[in-house]
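User: I'm preparing a small set of examples for a lab meeting where we compare how different chains pack in three dimensions. I only have the primary sequence for this one, and I'd like the structure in token form so I can line it up with the others. Please keep the answer compact; I'll paste it straight into my notes.
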Amino acid sequence: MHAGTYTENVTFKAAGVTLQVNSGDTAVLKGTIDILSFSNSIVDGFQVTGFSVASYGGIHASNTTGGIIRNNVVHDATGSGI
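Assistant: Understood. Below is the structure token output for the 82-residue chain.
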């Protein structure tokens, strides 16, 4: 993903997806990222902010294996981070 500020909620639809910020770029996501139960997925390099969720976090995964969540910063939101 390129540098910028994105206002959306991202929901994975398949296993093995990589959602990654380009090297040297800063991507701010005002919303959430939900991996759901899709295995072997990667979320890397985001600033996740501005969400308000009671049941899960800014970056959420449930009952999955092989996933990688790295180099992310979760801030200025309401609810759990990751």
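A couple of notes for your slides: The CA atoms of residues 37 and 63 lie 5 Å apart. Residues 4-75 form one domain.

User: Perfect, thanks.
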